[in-house]
Amino acid sequence: MITSVGIKNLRSLKQVEDIEIKPITILVGANSSGKSTFLRSFPLFTQSIMKPLRGSISWFDDSLVDFGDYDTALNRYALKDEHIQFSYHIDNVPYLKWYMNNLNWRRIQIGSDRLLDKIDVCISLSDDNKGTFINLVSLKIKDFTVSFGVESRNDKVVFTVNDEYVSGIGLAVFHYAHQQSILPSVVMYSSKDDEDDEDWYLHVYKNDVKKFLLHINHDKVKVAERVDFVFDLWEPDKLSFLNRLLQKKQIPASLIKLFKTWDSHTPEFVQLYNMLAVFHVLRVYPSINRELSNFYAQCSYIAPARAEALRYYRNQGLQVDDIDAYGRNLAEFISSLSSTALQDYAAYTKKLLGVKVKKENSPGHQSIILESNNGKFNISDVGFGYSQILPIVTKLWFYSYRSNRKNFFSLSQEKGHVILMEQPELHLHPAYQAKLADAFVEFVNLDKKQKKQYTEEFEKNKNILILETHSETIINRIGQRIREGTLYANDVNVLIFEKKIQDPNTEVKQTMFNDKGQLIDWPVGFFEPED
Q1: Which of 12, 61, 202, 287 has a CA between 20 and 30 Å from the CA of residue 311?
Q2: For the segment 236-294, what is each residue's pLDDT rounded down to a tens digit?
Q3: Do 394 and 376 meet the contact criterion of CB atoms below 8 Å apart?
Q4: SS3 letters for 127-179?
Q5: How far apart are CA 298 and CA 307, in angstroms?
Q6: What radius of gyration do the chain's Cα atoms show?
Q7: How big is the CA angle at 281 (ends 171 and 165), to the nearest 5 degrees?
């Protein structure tokens, strides 16, 4: 579960660290202050994992966001050796492990692992003529940090533990061409002369550790399997690991004699510790990769200006499972709903907006109809605001509806969703902006009744809403709902983006509401014009 993110050297975001992701995360600030850059970094990764790439990042996708390319996305004041970086704090990552099924290796989730409780991940991006690639991955786990990286994409991977180079490791390279993956896979080879013999797991690396241990023991132990115990004895704390080596029974006497000559600073012990640290990090590395990838796969983006309503939409016969960023497929999405879902959707829009949203079909075409107490109207005959609010409302309803359909999605399987939206208040009267804020509160309060019974699962699978807004009405409405007890103050984070004249880089301040619905340390006159 990702709890915070950080960004360095992305456009005006020179150094933004530890931004806490709450169920409602609100981005406010003046125009061109970096809000959109921060918010669009999420769909940037979403569009990157949804298609095969030569590298790691797709900077442009006409269905989502456009950052140009690496050079245009890089902070203009970054030093020559500085890169674009993204960092994350992750809690309670489910552990994945390989198993054999029908002669094929598959990964399954087998619960937790001691190394996956709390992790800090940092990835660094570089660029070449083939595109953008990840050149460094750094993982801080417990009290140690393992980093592995390359100068160029085809270089051998260099491993460090706490900034100390780890020797004795054979050939390892990054592989980038993986769809639905954020991090590059680390592939080990048995030798430089046998690079086609790709190892699916850590067998090659494990052999490197065994060879090192046998070598420093002057090959007094001839069978490599007799040193397998060191992998299970390893501890992140060096002294604990050394004590476990000394207390281990039923191991070769020559090894006990060797271990008794060591202390925590002995070079051979330090190298063994570092090699095992790398081994155990690589063991859980696929789990960390999947956690990051799943997070971005669950992100759904709504652009600031949605598509204008049409009187008739061509019937394409598509089965649509989400609203696109601009709401262009809204009619086709509504046509994809079952009769039960359509009734629920109409009831939702009636409750929120005072109109039932329906569809009417004609040969080759379909229309979106709004039905109220005053009659039925084509969406093109009502205010422009409906075309702007309906994609947002429909997306909120759909993800809520999916999560409530427990006959299809169980509480333990259905992940929470991350909805990202820019300026949802466009073309809306303040009264409708307030209604929209209520929909936001309802979205993140999903399954609140079951929270006491499924506390841990709820926290892992909760919905998240990240929105960039200039609406004082939306902010005040959320404060009102906190004051009334509908929403917890701790479920909201407010980010204030500021760019001072003398400093071209953005500064981000985090604030929050108190239990009375009042913003803490809110800048005086924030929404007032500068005279």
Answers
A1: 61
A2: 999 999 999 999 988 888 999 999 999 999 999 999 999 999 999 999 999 999 999 99
A3: no
A4: EECCEEEEEEEEEEECCEEEEEECCCCCCCCEEEECCEECCCCCCEEEECCCC
A5: 23
A6: 27
A7: 55
